[in-house]
Amino acid sequence: MAVESIAKTLGTGSGIDVTALVTSLVENSFANKNQAITTKNDALTAQISSVSTIKGNISDFAAALASLTSSGSLATQPTSSNTGIVNVTRLSGADLAGLNATMEVRQLAQGQVSSSQAFSGGSSSVVGGGKLTLSFGTATVSSGAMTGFTQGGGTPVEIDVPANATLSDVAAAINAKKAGVTATILSDSTGARLVLKSATGSSQAFTLSGTDGLSQLDVGPGATGSTISATAQDARVAIDGVEAKYPTNSITTMIPGARIDLVSASVGTKVTIGASSPSTALSQAVSNFVETYNQVFKAVQTATDPVNGPLKSDPAAKQLLQQLKRLTLSDLVPGAAVDSPSKLADLGVKTNRDGTLSLDSARLSKVLTDYPNDVEKIFAESAGLTKALSGISDIATSTKSGLGASADKYSKAQEDLADQKTKIASDTEKLRDRMTQQFAAMDAKVAAYKSTQTFLQQQIDAWNAKD
């Protein structure tokens, strides 16, 4: 008889609800093990959740600070008294403290621009095929004509043009070569012209010579089919009265740590280049740091509480707590002068009894006034506080020894519990089947005994009736 059928007939002989009895016995047999697994699983779930929260908190904290310091908003910024003539931008990692100079833009850098004669058939005018030769160097120009050319050290560039090429085909062939000259087609009521333009700088003047029908596009001394509308020239800039030449209008070698973008030339106009200290931004950054630190610290402190903390026994969480506690006294500017601020504590950041931080705003204000450059170094990009906090974050989230490893350990433990729970479920069913069969056999015997008892009772009753 199948176990299911047996279960349906249990108790018919003994009168006892054997199915309920078996269920109760089986459940009680595994109750302690199931409860223990549930308790461990709940604890592991809390640990995994806590680890995830803390990892996210410290990673986000470090990333936010790194983003802030890399933006340049906490560093001294260069200024220009006339942005219509000169724009100045700080380069990453630059120290522009004390920057003060005057600048005069006497000439902008430009590239050579030439245009061919107008072709009445437009851009589809056939000019023929062959070879174009492009050479770079320096040139003299007068009234739109190149009067002299000195070739530079580079090798001339040869450009193949297919047979029966149109003006558009020629422009495409030149651009495909990417040799330092860009070609466009300019069309108006008179027709289409091939316009050629080089990069800026006096050394970027060019000549173009073509074979066969392409010769009508020649550019250079003696060429009659083209006009030079812009001469290749360097920028001429005077810094504190000393003139220098540059091949571009974006200059990074004039003032260390700054990019100078020339907007327009204005001979005789002096532009003052200075620096602006980010005192307000630094003050806000310190305040924001303290506020965020306290949120992160409290989360770690709660998680590692020795009585109720889910991570009270987690070494990585405890290590993170200790590293955060030491941060205010860490030397963030190695090699700093004895009297200059190099720690958060020097800025007025104090550690309270409960481990959280508070800010002495008056102290910070004085330090920013007296040591603005040193405070800036504490918040330097990829250094100072940013480097220290990133280091703490890397250690804390490490998958080898940090919270990353803890998360893996707890997840593996949960998987093991799931396997144990599956085994217990299997053992439960086996025990249920075995006990069901045993009680079925017992119930059958009880039914037989009861049948015999009934027969004997009937016989006795019959004997007594004869008397």
From TrEMBL:
Domain called Flagellar hook-associated protein 2 C-terminal: residue spans: 232-450
Question: Coiled coil as a keyword?
Answer: yes
Q: Which residues form the signal peptide?
A: none
Q: What is its main location?
A: secreted
- Entry's Gene Ontology cellular component terms: bacterial-type flagellum filament cap; bacterial-type flagellum hook; extracellular region
User: Subcellular location, in the record's words?
Assistant: Secreted; Bacterial flagellum
Instruction: Write the record's keywords in alphabetical order, separated by commas.
Output: Bacterial flagellum, Cell projection, Cilium, Coiled coil, Flagellum, Secreted
Q: What is the purpose of this protein?
A: Required for morphogenesis and for the elongation of the flagellar filament by facilitating polymerization of the flagellin monomers at the tip of growing filament. Forms a capping structure, which prevents flagellin subunits (transported through the central channel of the flagellum) from leaking out without polymerization at the distal end.
- Which family does the similarity line name? Belongs to the FliD family.
Under the heading Pfam families, the entry gives: Flagellin_IN, FliD_C, FliD_N
* Subunit structure comment from the entry: Homopentamer.
Q: What GO terms in the biological process aspect are recorded for it?
A: bacterial-type flagellum-dependent cell motility; cell adhesion
Its recorded name reads Flagellar hook-associated protein 2
Domain named Flagellar hook-associated protein 2 N-terminal is located at: 14-112
